[in-house]
C-alpha cells in the first residue's frame, strides 16, 4: 500500500467485523466497525474515512443506500460486500460513481487486500481527473470572458483584434490584475452603458428616440471614451500573463 488508510466497515455479523478488525491493521490501516447502515453514515461524518467497506444487507438502512448518502456528503470510495449480487443491487450500485470494488463472501485476506489497494488507487486517480477537468472548464470560461471583452474594445475603441488584446493586457498589467479580472471589469462597464442607452426616452408617435440632453449618440461617445481611457492609461507595473489572442 502507498499509505495507511482510515477505513469504516459496516457489517451486521460479529465474526466478520472481528476479521476486519484483526486483518486490516496488519496492512497498516486504521479500522472502525459498525453494525447498521445508519451507524455507517454517522461514523463517516465523524471519522472522515478514506475508504468504506459495507455489507449490502444491513439493518435499518441497506449498505448501498448508506454508502450513497456517505458519498453525497463527502466523496469516498466504497467496496461492497455481499453473498450475492442480484441485478437490482448491481443497477443501484452503478447509479453512482462511488463503488470501486465488489467482494463476495466468504472473505479471504488476499482478496480483501487486493480490493482495498485497487479501490484506493482508482479513487485517487478519479479525483485527480476530476480536478483537472474542473481546471480546464474554468480556463475555457475565462477565455470566453476575455474574448467578449476584447470584442467590446474592438467595437468601441475602433482597433484591430490584436491591438484590442494588447491594450487589454496592458490594462491588466497597469492595475496588477489577472487578465480575466480586467476583462470582467470591461464587461461590467459595458453592461452599465447598455442599460443607460436602453433607458433613453423614446418618441412613442414615430418610434424614434427623442432628442434628449443625453441621447444615444452622446452615450455611445461617452462609453467609447471611458473604455479607451481604461485601456490606455500608462503605468509601469509589470504583469506576466500567458494568455494569447485567439
State the gist of this model.
The protein has 246 residues and is α/β, with parallel strands linked by helices. The chain is 57% helix and 12% strand.
Explained architecture:
With 246 residues, this protein is of the alpha/beta class. It has 2 domains: 6-107, Response regulator (Rossmann fold); 136-232, Orthogonal Bundle (Arc Repressor Mutant, subunit A), CATH 1.10.10. It contains 8 helices and 7 strands. It has helices at 14-23, 37-47, 63-73, 87-94, 109-157, 161-174, 179-198, 216-232, and strands at residues 6-10, 30-34, 51-55, 78-82, 99-104, 202-203, 208-209. The protein has a 5-stranded parallel β-sheet, sandwiched between helices. The chain has a two-stranded antiparallel ribbon with strand order 6-7. The longest helix has 49 residues, at 109-157. Mean pLDDT is 79; it is low at 209-228 and 233-246.
CATH topology of the largest domain: Rossmann fold
Number of strands: 7
Unreliable residue stretches: 209-228, 233-246
Query: What gyration radius follows from the Cα positions, in whole Å?
Result: 30 Å
Amino acid at each position: 500500500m502507498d499509505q495507511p488508510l482510515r477505513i469504516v466497515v459496516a457489517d451486521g455479523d460479529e465474526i466478520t467485523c472481528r476479521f476486519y478488525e484483526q486483518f486490516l491493521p496488519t496492512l497498516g490501516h486504521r479500522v472502525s466497525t459498525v453494525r447498521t447502515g445508519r451507524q455507517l453514515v454517522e461514523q463517516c461524518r465523524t471519522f472522515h474515512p478514506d475508504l468504506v467497506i459495507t455489507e449490502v444487507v444491513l439493518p435499518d438502512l441497506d449498505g448501498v443506500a448508506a454508502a450513497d448518502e456517505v458519498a453525497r456528503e463527502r466523496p469516498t470510495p466504497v467496496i461492497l460486500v455481499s453473498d450475492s449480487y442480484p441485478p437490482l443491487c448491481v443497477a443501484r450500485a452503478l447509479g453512482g460513481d462511488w463503488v470501486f470494488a465488489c467482494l463476495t463472501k466468504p472473505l479471504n485476506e488476499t482478496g480483501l487486500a487486493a480490493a482495498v489497494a485497487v479501490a484506493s488507487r482508482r479513487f485517487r486517480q478519479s479525483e485527480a481527473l476530476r480536478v483537472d477537468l474542473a481546471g480546464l472548464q474554468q480556463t475555457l470560461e475565462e477565455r470566453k470572458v476575455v474574448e467578449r471583452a476584447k470584442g467590446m474594445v474592438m467595437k468601441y475603441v475602433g482597433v484591430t483584434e490584436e491591438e484590442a488584446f494588447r491594450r487589454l493586457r496592458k490594462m491588466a498589467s497597469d492595475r496588477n490584475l489577472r487578465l480575466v479580472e480586467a476583462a470582467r471589469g470591461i464587461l461590467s462597464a459595458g453592461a452599465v452603458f447598455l442599460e443607460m442607452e436602453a433607458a433613453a426616452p423614446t418618441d412613442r408617435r414615430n418610434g424614434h428616440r427623442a432628442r434628449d440632453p443625453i441621447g444615444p449618440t452622446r452615450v455611445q461617445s461617452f462609453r467609447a471614451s471611458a473604455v479607451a481611457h481604461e485601456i490606455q492609461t500608462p503605468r509601469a507595473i509589470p504583469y506576466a500573463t500567458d494568455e494569447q489572442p485567439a
